[in-house]
Design a protein that fits this description.
2 copies of one chain form a homodimer.
Chain A: H1 14-31, H2 38-45, H3 49-55, H4 59-70, H5 84-99, H6 102-117, H7 119-146, H8 156-173, H9 180-194
The structure holds a DNA duplex.
Protein name (chains A, B): TetR/AcrR family transcriptional regulator
DNA-binding region (chains A, B): 37-56
Pfam families (chains A, B): TetR_C_11 (PF16859), TetR_N (PF00440)
Chain lengths: 198, 198
DNA sequence: ACGTATACGAGACGACCCGTCTCGTCCGAG
DNA sequence: CTCGGACGAGACGGGTCGTCTCGTATACGT
């Protein structure tokens, strides 16, 4: 489901759609989000401006669809080896590498920034990119609660935020490096707060 | 120190400077950051555009100075009553109320969003608005470490991030409400991770 | 298989804002 | 008092916006 489909989607050109996504992702990496323009995307994609305006309300919506299209598999479950700390560290290390990769950085950062400023966009950004990730951590933490490994009274949502928010905040505002040592420390600290037997 | 003072600052019109700040803060609340323009600020302030371009490099820089001017007292130390949990909860509750107030919201959110997208701006934003806040929590946590109240091996910086990042992330991306109950929970969880006697 | 509807590429259009510049005025430092 | 420089005002070319209007090409309905 694109953001605002009004014309007849059956007649839509798949070729143009892909060209627009490719152009948007390439351009946001080359010139940055503020200088990303609809005209520029259209020209690079070999497409009329109207074709973009027909299907998307803004450059942010184009980028969100383009990025979502290219980032499948964000909704997979965490491994559950029984060792909660190891599972969390493993996935957080992978996330760390992803956020350090340039191809991921530019569009994701642009969308996060645009979402922070625009209430409507932030809803779509959160629902389509952030929440699926949150849910995966929440599920794994609930499983650990049922296994009696962590405090059953702790709110998995808040624990997830304590794991991911320091991480994303560092990255978004560039207040520190994202390293495996850092994410390991986060996991250890959060789990020390909710270990059972206190 | 403004962002880029090149002409003779002694001859500068204080009257215009204030009018520009007032106009920028009012407009960002009325039309939002993306539709905030230098021309608009100049017109509202009754000022020539050149007067703005003479003293600031961008609308973000104007807004950062305007906001900083209006937000004195962000560098004060936390109270130290000896009860670490109570001190942290007290200040975090106050911060919570501040972030929920509309006059604070619009410019701060605009600056955070612009900083996320622009590397140079994020440096200034972090240094002038975020780090002073971080330092205050770090100091209070170090004092608690010296008093033997919390684990001396824990990194105060990371603990500060675990307190503040979930908070600001919720606010920035609108992923949840900011309530006193929420901030209290954060304090309790973080302190459980580093309480002494384990 | 054909006819028709409609999305398509291309680009013109007025509106807005950008950042620079040029005026003539006014004010403050020396 | 003098005078240099910041001031308010606004003209200017350039770029992007979002809308529109072409003629073309293509996929659907019968």
């Amino acid at each position: 489901m694109p953001t605002t489909p009004s014309p007849n989607a059956a007649r839509r050109s798949e070729r143009s759609r892909r060209a627009i996504f490719d152009a948007a992702l390439a351009l946001v990496g080359e010139v940055g989000y503020p200088r990303l323009t609809i005209e520029g995307i259209a020209a690079r994609a070999g497409v009329g401006k109207q074709t973009i305006y027909r299907w998307w309300p803004s450059k942010a919506a184009v980028l969100l669809d383009a990025f979502t299209e290219g980032a499948e598999g964000y909704g997979e479950a965490l491994p559950d080896t029984g060792d909660l700390a190891a599972d969390l560290k493993y996935v957080l290390r992978a996330t760390c590498d992803e956020f350090n990769s340039p191809a991921f950085q530019a569009p994701y950062r642009a969308l996060a920034a645009a979402g922070a400023a625009d209430e409507e966009l932030s809803g779509a950004f959160v629902a389509r990119l952030m929440e699926p990730g949150f849910a995966v951590y929440g599920d794994r933490l609930r499983a650990a609660q049922e296994a009696g490994q962590i405090d059953p009274d702790a709110d998995p949502r808040i624990l997830t935020e304590m794991l991911l928010s320091p991480f994303s905040q560092r990255w978004l505002m560039r207040t520190g490096e994202l390293t495996h040592a850092y994410t390991d420390t986060l996991v250890d600290l959060v789990l020390r707060a909710v270990r059972t037997g206190d």
